[in-house]
Amino acid sequence: MIKVNKIISGCMEVNCYIVYDSDTMKAAIIDPGENGDKVINEIEKNGFKPEMLINTHGHYDHILSDEKIRAKYKIPLAAHKYEVQMLADPQYNASIFFGNSGSVKTPEIQLEDNQEVELSFAKFKVIHTPGHTKGGICLLFDGFIITGDTLFAGTIGRTDFPGGSFEEMMNSLEKIKHLPPLTIIYPGHGSITTLANELRHNPYLRKSEK
Description:
- Helices cover 22% and strands 30% of the residues.
- It contains six helices and 14 strands.
- A hairpin with a 2-residue loop joins strand 11 and strand 12.
């Protein structure tokens, strides 16, 4: 059975997710955030067996422990092809403005819209959702979606950062709105929600009155 373990990582309280098979404990790590030691401790405590690291986008608060995780578990990093420069450049990923110099080496796997990625225990579909960043993505698994900083409970990600666009964000949300309402949403920050709940209460997703 596929399960999701949530770890809050770093001062920006990024939601790191470990998607795993409860039988084999094989796992994928999404957005480890700033606190790599906390993520590694959780992996070791539970006996997870990571086989891929994935970034939903390249902002520093989601990526600063990427290299520590890659080195520890010798696993490939996957991110959208448009985020490669942001991952590598401390100015683009904004780490330099917070006293860090976060630089992530080129991802081994560069993702594209609608790409299906097969893990040993599950598969997911890549949905390119620009708006927060040019290469932001959501990861659609069976029954749930990891939305990064595209969609949160009750709101959406900021669009006023470099590479952001409100118009692109609205177009991206259209891709998510038409998923099954019972789809569970695992956002990059804050509480877990469902698409049905967001369609009712999120002003950016609320259905139009007929």
